[in-house]
Amino acid sequence: MATIVKKCCCFEVPEDLVESVIFKCTSPDCCCGCCAPRYKRLVDSVFPRNPQDGLVKSNMEKLTFYVLSSPEKLDRVGEYLYQKVSRDIYRKRNGFTVIGVECMDQLLQACHSQTLNLFVESFLKMVQKLLESPDPNLQILATKSFVKFANIEEDTPSYHRRYDFFVSKFASMCHNNSSNDEFRNEIRKAGIQGLKSVVRKTVSDELVENIWETSHMEKIIPSLLFNMEHGRKTLVKDENDGVTEAQDEIDAPKLAENCMRDLVNKATFGHVRSIVKPVLHHFDAFELWVPNDFAVHTFRVIMFSIQSQYSYAVIETLMNHLEQHTHSSNAKIRTSMADVLAKIIDIAAGESVGPSVLEIVNAIVQHIQVSTKLDRVDGDEKSYRETLISALGEYVTHLPDYQKIEIMKFIMQKVPSRSDNCQSHRLLQNMLLKSLLMVGSKYRTTYLSTTFPIAFLQPLLTLSQDDDPEVRLLVQNILHTLIDRRQNREKLFTPTLKLENINREPSTRTDILFVKKNGAEIFSNMIASLEKNNNELRNMNAIYTTVALFTVELFCEDTLFDFVRLVLSFQDLAITSTVLSPAQKIHLHVIALCLFVLIAYCLPVLKEYSDKVIKARRDQAIHLMPPLKTRYEVYEPSQNIPDAALLSQDAIYTLLKQEGFEPTTVKSAAYTFPRHSWVDAHMQSSSTTDLNSISLEVDSGSSTPDGTKQKPNQTDMELTVESLKKILNEPSENRKAVESEKRKNLNESFKTAAFEDLVSKAAAKGGNLQNKLSEIFSKVAVSGTVESPSRTNNNHTSNHVGNKVRFPNIYEL
Amino acid sequence: MEDYRFLFKVVLVGNAGVGKTCLVRRFTQGLFPPGQGATIGVDFMIKTVDINGEKVKLQIWDTAGQERFRSITQSYYRSAHALILVYDVSSQPSFDCLPDWLREIEEYANAKVLRVLVGNKTDREDREIPTYVGEDFAQRNNMYFMETSAKEADNVEKLFMEIAHALIEQAKAREPVPEYKGNPGQSVTLNHRTPSTTSESCCSRLL
Asked: SS3 of A287, please?
């Protein structure tokens, strides 16, 4: 160093020497300007005599050249400049302050990053000094300078820089409340820019401040939001006042929004929460949830800016927040939050993968669950749930189909079983089915077998037997949306004879397999649901639609007899049922006819016959024509229906035979589907034994001993192989007649007899049966026989403890 | 003029309208602005004071009392060296909220923060909180106590000076700085080469 000789103004001297002599002489009061070191003189020369003249450009160049050629001096130059500036600030000589800052800026720009490190310290001290000044002009000047600094890419690490003052101060500037509008605006803008710069400076540099710390985020985020929101208000106001002024006003909020985007964009997974939490707190504190335009806007900004793989973390955080609000705040706020969720969730859906999907669905379902448990049943709570469901729908829409099935299965699992009868469970059941319907409506079925995996179909069908007509209707609606592959739903909404433009395609092999596998179960469930005596008109319509859609989708030569049998058993049910009201029986007749017409539409051979039946009905039994009505003038329809107006199994089978269609099973009559006596009506709904028997019949075409499992309870006959044989061999009509006679008697007796009589009678009979059964159990362990009575017991212990016999369904209601 | 030995952050909290901003204004600028509007977010002022010849720079953060700004103001507690909890002696509600404020402070501020209770507006005729009640409350909660009037400039200077004093004591107790002992009046120019990081790091030790 000592060898370097520099030219001074008056004499030549090794620079270090001079420096060592007047090393400490940095006092502003130093009398002797000429003995100051060269760098000081250079700095001094930059300032003009009169501040209005501005920076002395030529001297500035000299100074720049000087620090570039001897970068080791830069630190001292910085320190000296800092002192000069702070002196000027103190003496309120703003003109010189501005020049000092400008000089500092230029040096910063000119110098290479490697040498900047200490200089930056002085620079930042200067900026801080300016920011500490109460003069808004200086604060703005400081911010501008700081922004310039932030734009410089430093490649040397800086270990000991602290930005917490800057964050605090800039955040405070964002909230400036000066009475002077212009200043207020400028300072707020400066504050936002400052924050933006701090973020830019720190985000990429791990060694400096961790900007994601809560103490910083809690300052930055509310400041940005405050400005974003404030701008929206003034924007609205200004639109009325005139556009010219609005131009300036928009700036601050726009700036804040951009800053927000920047910040969110830089966030990684761990930071998402530290961003979203202050946002949520801000909305809570400022009550910005209702109305939620701004919340929606903000979250959209976040969702669109965030790196897409993290977007679900935002959703998760929002959902957690919703949870915190569950008990504290009113439903309106929660509805608004859920609405925000609904509006942004689709953005996340595209990126969600794996477990996160189910997590989100689970969270939504849980919110619904929690909401149903609350005692409040006002409209707000209801709309909250609806919003949640629509959020679910929005989310699911954007998921791939295979995930939708998973989700449907998942929701299905959550639906409470029907054994729970309390209000909240009902509500939850209802809500979850609605969610299911929502998901289902977003799903496009290609293969029915993929749409209805057994784990989903089974519980769904079980629910189709629920006691609540509302639930049954929902289940039917879910079936509609899932079965309807070709948009026929609207056309088949109610039973109709006019079939036009039904979209059909030939059934595929998988379709047929589906019918073979699940058809029997589905159909027997349809029949069972038709037999519910609290069915309303819309339930009837809905079941018609379901079966009709199945027909359209799956009808072919292979499945022909399944459908014909089904239709016939509908009619059969109408004639034999003792539970249904006359109007419901008429409905069944109408549905049977309409379905037959649909079959005839698919298989024109039957057209002629169907026309014949229609004509007969028109002439003789007009009340058996669609549409369905709630009230009929004719009662006891089964008594006076002329045969011609009914579908005749023989006629149909003959026709089909002529065309070369042979029924696949021997005992393929309408009663393939079990008739229910009062005892097994209940068991039917969920009994797997029945279903086995049916599928066996369909599959093997021969009646097997399994087919008898359903029957032990039907009569009080002795349960021997002989008696069973007898049942099988007897012509069905005989048995039916006997049965219906019996049923009538039973009905009669229950209606008229005294309660005590009934109890004693039932007790006696029950004991009988009980003995018999235990006898059988001890002899053979037949799974089927074990199952049915035990189920009966389970279902009906409430009225008579210790008495294993139950009253028929009709008396329960 | 320039260098300071200590830098302390002082944060004022308390209900809206108890006179926090006026206290700060009175202290930093010597004025009492009538019709001062509600503070939004956080306001910032700085004042350097001389305590026994030592320059102490006070960074004063004046927070908004309104509930809705609570989340941003809380973030300022954390780094504070002293918290001034202000109530209005003529307003019982502002006094009743003190326990809530204390809870906030417990939750968000540094455990070793210096806490000062200030009853402001002693110039008011309609006083509702007698001095001893405030004093009692302060004692129970281990706080310094003072009654002030920003309007009359009563005790305002004293308040901040005492805080500065206490903070210095605290700082010195925690980290004695030998080279300054016995010579508090040392001139600034001589200190110059001691990089100002000393004073900064001294403060950061307080954190």
From this structure: coil
DSSP 8-state assignment for residue A644: G
Cβ-count burial A427-463 (b if 16+ within 10 Å, e if not): bbbbbbbbbbbbbbbbbebeebbebbeeebbbbbbbb
pLDDT of amino acid A454: 84
Buried b (16+ CB within 10 A) or exposed e, A361-379: bbbbbebbbebbeeeeeee
Q: What are phi and psi of A620, to 5 degrees?
A: -115, -20
Chain B contact set for A175 (CB, 8 A): 40-43, 64, 69, 72
pLDDT on residue B130: 93
B60: closest chain A residue by CA: A132
Which stretches of chain A drop beneath a pLDDT of 70? 1-35, 112-115, 155-160, 205-209, 231-250, 328-329, 351-355, 375-377, 417-421, 634-640, 663-735, 749-773, 775-777, 779-813
Which residues of A fall below an 8 Å CB-CB distance to B? 23-24, 26-27, 83, 86-87, 90, 125, 132, 134, 160, 162, 164-165, 168-169, 171-172, 174-177, 179, 214-216, 218-219, 222-223, 226, 278, 281-282, 285-287
ipTM of the complex: 0.82
Q: Across all residues in chain B, what is the average pLDDT?
A: 82
Angle, helices A582-602 vs A537-554, to 10°: value is 20
Backbone angles phi, psi at A63, to 5 degrees: -60, -45
Domain-wise residue ranges, chain A: 16-156, 484-651, 674-813
Torsion of CA A768, A770, A771, A773, to 10 degrees: 120
Residue A526: what pLDDT?
86
Show Cβ contacts of residue A592 under 8 Å, excluding neighbours closer than 6 positions. A567, A568, A570, A571, A574, A647
- Report the relative pairing of strands B82-88 and B6-14 from DSSP bridges: parallel
In chain A, whose CA is at the least distance from the CA of B63? A172
Given this model, what pLDDT does residue A726 score? 66
pTM: 0.71
Give the closest of B68, B74, B196 to A286, CB-based.
Answer: B68
- Distance of alpha carbon B185 from alpha carbon A236, whole angstroms: 59
Strands B42-51, B82-88: pairing is unpaired
Interacting residues of B19 by C-beta distance below 8 A, sequence separation 6+: B86, B88, B120, B121, B150
CATH architecture of B6-206: 3-Layer(aba) Sandwich (3.40)
Contact (CB, 8 A) for A753 and A737: no
- Domain boundaries defined on chain B: 6-206
Looking at the DSSP bridge assignments, the partners of residue B12 are: B62, B84
Distance CA A546, CA A390 (A): 24
- The pair of three-digit structure tokens given for residue A85, joined into one six-digit string: 């500036």
CA-CA distance, A510 to A25, in Å (whole number)?
A: 96
Pick the CATH number of A16-156 from 3.40.50, 1.10.1740, 2.60.460, 1.25.40: 1.25.40
Dist CA A382 CA A378 (whole Å): 7
**pLDDT tens digit sequence for A155-166:** 666 666 778 899
Q: What residues of A are in contact with residue B108 (Cβ under 8 Å)?
A: none
Phi, psi (deg, nearest 5) at residue B116: -125, 130
Interface of B with A in 16-75 (CB under 8 A): 28-29, 37-46, 59, 61, 64, 67-72, 74-75
